[in-house]
């Protein structure tokens, strides 16, 4: 969908409080995991995002009926899987949808899912998902851009991931959760989004232990019951707003956060001189000149899987550091090509030199310019940068922001920003 660009007038004093949505990247696997139950499931804390609508379209094809119960609660009911395929038109919109393979396989014994392909910043391989399935007894074939997965009986055995993969861990857990086998996953992701999906599945009667450690054991059960579950707050959105506070040298109360899930981000901002205090599930982020002094300090940042500094906050951190005097170095080995924000930040006066996955950033005063987001977090980097400038920045590519930030324009206006974009109200259903 082509949306009208976002118009941001920077330079206004921001402040006050902003409430973080619940997590996109935890909600999507929890929604998919509901496929494992034949009974109704009610989920709370589901952000109204285009990615959520995309996964619901895909699940409607598979046989899920859904009903919104108020703004952020969703009832899902999949009495039968009516199709066992996930076609390209739906999977290509969102790579995260590849994890439906595990869920369809668990319920139906066979699944055909289109290969997810690349994205704006480069390849997003699924070789570990495929290796895990094969090691656990699934027959995998590849034909015409599709993967076909078939199992005789239940998944069984042990698989050691060659690298930490969030989606690969989700997929293998989903595939093994029903039946009478026992699956042990080693070098599994300890990401918050894996833990959230496992807690949800266990609340429906699954038998999964070790989530949050590198060894996860999944004992199949014959069926899952219905139930209700609330998804965790969005740590990536929280981090985005923390970086916005720092870049605009303001004080923000960022509400609905899990401070324990943001330690790497908090530590890096504190190293820059930002004062961060915890108040229950609120973080008070103070980067005002009275508190911090004239300038923030440059830092070096390297992304890692959780609990390290997240790749999903790398573009936003780069935008922040582009405003901080001195030399900072940002490296993203998790997604070495995740650099679509750089050329756009150059248009706003940023001084960033790229070599491989390393950005060397010399702080500068940014100015407004017409820019274009080519992916979600690049869009976030651009709105952070725009809010630090004096003029009006027009950001195109708003459909990417709609993937990850609910009612963004309205919430930014709530902290004093001048943001115009009717399409970001997301009046979808
Ligand atoms: C919807 C969702 O939750 N997306 C998040 C999820 O994506 P996603 O689950 O796709 O990311 P992974 O954790 O799988 O990827 C981590 C690394 O492993 C590599 N890899 C992954 C799978 C595989 O089979 N082979 C392989 O080589 C990837 O290229 C990447 O370098 O985690 C990423 C890393 O935290 C985040 O940036 C995404 O926002
Ligand atoms: C990259 C992201 O999502 P996805 O994995 O769905 O592309 C993200 O949330 O920043």
UniProtKB/TrEMBL annotation:
| Residue stretches spanning the membrane | none
Active site residues of this protein: 119
State the pathway, as annotated in the record.
Cell wall biogenesis; peptidoglycan biosynthesis
Main EC class the enzyme belongs to:
transferase
The UniProt annotation places UDP-N-acetyl-alpha-D-glucosamine binding at: 95, 124-128, 312, 334
- Main localization is cytoplasm
Q: Specify whether Nuclease is a keyword of the entry.
A: no
Q: Which reaction does it catalyse?
A: phosphoenolpyruvate + UDP-N-acetyl-alpha-D-glucosamine = UDP-N-acetyl-3-O-(1-carboxyvinyl)-alpha-D-glucosamine + phosphate
Q: Please give one Gene Ontology molecular function term for this protein.
A: UDP-N-acetylglucosamine 1-carboxyvinyltransferase activity
Reading the lineage from the top rank, the first entry is Bacteria
InterPro entries, from UniProt? Answer: Enolpyruvate_Tfrase_dom, Enolpyruvate_Tfrase_sf, MurA_subfamily, RNA3'P_cycl/enolpyr_Trfase_a/b, UDP_GlcNAc_COvinyl_MurA
Q: What is its EC number?
A: 2.5.1.7
**Would the keyword Transferase turn up in this protein's UniProt record?**
yes
Question: Sorted alphabetically, which keywords does the UniProt record give?
Answer: Cell cycle, Cell division, Cell shape, Cell wall biogenesis/degradation, Cytoplasm, Peptidoglycan synthesis, Pyruvate, Transferase
Which positions are annotated as binding phosphoenolpyruvate?
Answer: 24-25
* Subcellular location, record wording: Cytoplasm
- Ranges of residues in domain Enolpyruvate transferase: 9-412
Question: Where are the coiled-coil regions?
Answer: none
2-(S-cysteinyl)pyruvic acid O-phosphothioketal modifications at: 119
Its family? Belongs to the EPSP synthase family. MurA subfamily.
Q: What does this protein do?
A: Cell wall formation. Adds enolpyruvyl to UDP-N-acetylglucosamine.
Q: What is this protein called?
A: UDP-N-acetylglucosamine 1-carboxyvinyltransferase
* Native source species: Deinococcus arenicola
């Amino acid at each position: 969908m082509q949306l009208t660009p976002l118009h941001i007038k920077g330079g206004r004093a921001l402040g006050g409080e902003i409430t973080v949505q619940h997590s996109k990247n935890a909600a999507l696997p929890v929604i998919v995991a509901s496929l494992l139950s034949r009974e109704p499931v009610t989920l709370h804390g589901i952000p109204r995002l285009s990615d959520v609508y995309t996964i619901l379209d895909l699940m409607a094809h598979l046989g899920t009926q859904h009903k919104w119960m108020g703004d952020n609660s969703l009832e899902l009911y999949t009495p039968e899987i009516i199709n066992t395929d996930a076609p390209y038109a739906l999977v290509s919109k969102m790579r995260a949808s590849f994890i439906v393979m595990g869920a369809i396989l668990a319920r139906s014994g066979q699944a055909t899912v289109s290969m997810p392909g690349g994205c704006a910043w480069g390849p997003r391989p699924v070789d570990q998902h495929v290796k895990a399935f094969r090691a656990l007894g699934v027959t995998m074939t590849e034909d015409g851009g599709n993967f076909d997965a078939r199992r005789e009986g239940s998944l069984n055995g042990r698989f050691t991931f060659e690298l930490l993969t969030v989606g690969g861990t989700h997929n293998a857990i989903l595939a093994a959760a029903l039946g009478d086998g026992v699956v042990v996953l080693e070098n599994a992701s300890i990401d918050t989004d894996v833990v959230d999906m496992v807690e949800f599945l266990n609340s429906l009667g699954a038998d999964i232990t070790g989530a949050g450690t590198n060894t996860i054991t999944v004992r199949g059960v014959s069926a899952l019951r219905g139930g209700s579950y609330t998804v965790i707050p969005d740590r990536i959105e929280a981090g985005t707003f923390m970086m916005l506070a720092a870049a605009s040298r303001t004080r923000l109360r960022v509400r609905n956060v899990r401070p324990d899930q943001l330690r790497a981000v908090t530590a890096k901002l504190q190293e820059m001189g930002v004062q961060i205090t915890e108040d229950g599930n609120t973080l008070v982020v103070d980067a005002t000149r009275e508190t911090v002094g004239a300038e923030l300090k440059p830092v070096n940042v390297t992304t890692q899987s959780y609990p390290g500094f997240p790749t999903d906050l790398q573009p936003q951190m780069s935008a922040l550091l582009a405003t901080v005097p001195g030399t900072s170095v940002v490296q993203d080995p998790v997604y070495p090509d995740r650099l679509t924000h750089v050329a756009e930040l150059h248009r706003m006066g940023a001084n960033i030199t790229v070599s491989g996955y390393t950005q060397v950033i010399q702080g500068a005063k940014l100015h407004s310019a017409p820019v274009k987001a080519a992916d979600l977090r690049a869009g976030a980097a651009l709105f952070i940068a725009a809010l630090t400038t004096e003029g009006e920045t027009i950001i195109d590519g708003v459909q990417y922001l709609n993937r990850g930030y609910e009612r963004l324009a309205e919430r930014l206006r709530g902290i004093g920003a001048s943001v115009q974009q009717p399409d970001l109200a997301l009046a979808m259903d």
